[in-house]
């Protein structure tokens, strides 16, 4: 990098080129986009990251730092003068890497995966390097057109009904790339809200009502809250229905809400819930919703990826009755963060709420109505060239290989599930779906262990009275187990809670995970369970 | 990349490893994160982009493709089998590059700049490569802590009052990195809305009212619309006040609105408006707002960067009276898209509206209240490791060099402004602010040219009657001029409209722009004006 006027080592550069009037050439302060410097530093970072992937399984998966660890390693203020990339990279290695939780580790099983790939990464590089702002067509036609095409490609791979595709719907439907599901829900919710308010008057916003289940992702309630909708119904699900939202419970809730003067506008149905990957019955729910003019959004954030495999496509059967469908390609589709794919049947519903037409963006192409301006399909104005990475992923791997890749994770989850089932101390809490296994040390194990080991006058291992209830004890033991394995740094799993039960979630999907990692993870869990139960 | 089971050239691979049960080793379908493949492809892309920067000034700045150009170059469906990176890069070169508008070109002067840099790019690479999802502290402590620290660094460089800094405010204030200003406005607006509604009851949402001026960015009205606020007042500005929102006009509008039963909650003041970079008087506006308990957000999306220079800092004098302040580091601060910096005095106001606490994210660190969970400061749950690129920019260049860099752009804008002033056919429409020059062919030139050239019975060059009004003619000629220079591909500028006048905006700030580019741009404008006026 040309740092002619100022440098770190010498502050007495009063006589340098910028302070003295000089030729235009010499007046150049620095070129922060010098191609040769770009090349040098870019190659360094590629090697840094390649080495990182080589070694990532050696790091503790969940970061082991304490709160506020970083401030003591960094200066109090930004530097006044340039620092060399070598020093910065040293700091990344020494102070940043220990503070990250390694989502790229093969031993990462927490939350849902964030499955990066070479193709996803280089797509992001191209997008960051070209650095175009694709708010409307003219600001970079390729950014808009590639997005439309790739979303048609992917929609087709998912066998979405033609109405969701741009080319298949006479340009009424189509897909758009947003950052996260929260955005997909907020955009469609606002569309549904405004459609209703345009009929009944804006003053009735307080009567609007939206539906999800108690398994719906928390971003749904947050989106409704942002949109100024105060009535958010989280309909209770039951174990007997595999924690899905049933059409009957939706119907009876709607009827009672309408009786009470509320106006239902939106249902968020989920394919692959966060806690346990349950699958709401889309077709039946859409039938009910249709009767009441309710917008149905299908949130398949995690499980949507799997629907490119014929054997999983039935999970979204009935989506033709929905208004919108989204899944996160950054979760389990090899596309680096962030990449939420949203399709709508009627993009006019979105643009009626979200379009702006400020003078500074007016241009012939937009006025011709021959082009899409994606700014009107989303919350923000500015947007990156989002489709490059998804295009790279689809082309670099191909749909067939992507299917194999997903099946491979599902198979590893089957392996893990099989191992859990072989150990009678554990139970599979709900039948495995996709690549998520939900399990726990079973209540019977804990009761049996306690009656064998516990001779301390009605007090258990945790100093609680036994008659506090077994549920509490079962949950506490499983919490201890989870914390114990995560503390080891060898794997990272997280938990869910359904009907008061604390379950450990093993979400397989990190790109580097192979079968031997999964087997190792299970052995680790057994070892930690051994010692926990022994000391019980 | 190990593509063992499937490849492009051979579709008859029925006997390959994935189809036949085999050893776990052979069952591996592919490794989409193979470090050596990552290295190979990563280096290729670095060279591709370095070459792109070397040649970027040769491309037409504004893309010259026609709507729907891309579909004919790409297949109808995603490929089933992998394609080599070499073919994909060829397509990028042949079909994508011609379809992008080159925001990285030194001849780019449209909208506001998107000033990428080596540091901004490699920060983005590190973030994409580590691919962590930093929604809460535990999900990657470094992602949270570096953000807090860097936002304190940058806040200090801007001389923001201590209440906006985390460390300076006893942890009540602080900064957060969002994608765009739209998000900053929406988050703070929702906070202000809910604060008021908690006092007066949610049913009063229809009475809430927000203020901006007719120069406020369009995203403000959109954010209010998303938040369910129907009363959006765009107070008229005047040329006599340099198109700023005056305290008097705000005060009288508030008084009349309150009389009419409305409840003002929020003011979006702007430092560096989109059309002409006017600067609202923050201090006076805050004084008025304070009296009525109105939340003041200062949107300095473009001009905020310049405030790290002491000579520009006065533009945000009075910010201590505001509740929140934001600027886009991706505009004019060398940080690749997207990076909006938002500071608030009271982050509890944000989290009261935006916090969620779902079971699956519960963890000891969050419960200890010792850490920040940035998910509660923003709309979405998922978030990238946003601070890396800003950290890289601050360290790689240093605050002093960043100041020089910005001053260099301002100096180039002065040069351009000086050239415009020398040509009596043109006028500077409003005094230059920062690096934005607003100019046009002056009305007097057009009137003079018309009376010299026009002998066609009261019809002018465009076939309009002369008595349609001169304003129309002036605007039409300037539109023609702008379209003509943009069509040449040699520069790209866009326009603004104030008080009905169409002005050409020359926004200097692309990273690669040097003085000779600016001089060339002016010559080009003169040439096009010559021929337009000659044929007039």
Commentary on this structure:
Two copies of one chain form a homodimer. Chain A is built from 16 helices and eleven strands. Chain A starts with 23 loop residues before the first helix and ends with a helix. Chain A folds into three domains: 33-58 and 63-99, Up-down Bundle (dopa decarboxylase, N-terminal domain); 134-383, Type I PLP-dependent aspartate aminotransferase-like (Major domain) (Aspartate Aminotransferase, domain 2, 3-Layer(aba) Sandwich); 406-534, Aspartate Aminotransferase, domain 1 (Alpha-Beta Complex), CATH 3.90.1150.10. The longest helix of chain A is centred in the last third of the chain and has 36 residues, at 387-422. Residues 1-28 and 457-468 of chain A have low confidence and may be disordered. By secondary structure, the first copy, chain A, is α/β, with parallel strands linked by helices. Helix content of chain A is 41%, strand content 11%. In chain A, the strands form two sheets. In chain A, strands 1-7-6-5-4-2-3 form a seven-stranded mixed beta sheet, with helices on both faces. In chain A, α6 (181-200) crosses α7 and α13 crosses α16 (515-534). Chains A and B meet through α2, α3, α4, α5 and α6 of A and α2, α3, α4, α5 and α6 of B. Chains A, B: Residues 7-24 have a biased composition (Low complexity). Chains A, B: InterPro entries: Aromatic_deC, PyrdxlP-dep_de-COase, PyrdxlP-dep_Trfase, PyrdxlP-dep_Trfase_major, PyrdxlP-dep_Trfase_small, Pyridoxal-P_BS. Chains A, B: This is Tyrosine/DOPA decarboxylase 2. Chains A, B: Belongs to the group II decarboxylase family. Chains A, B: Residues 1-30 are annotated as: Disordered.
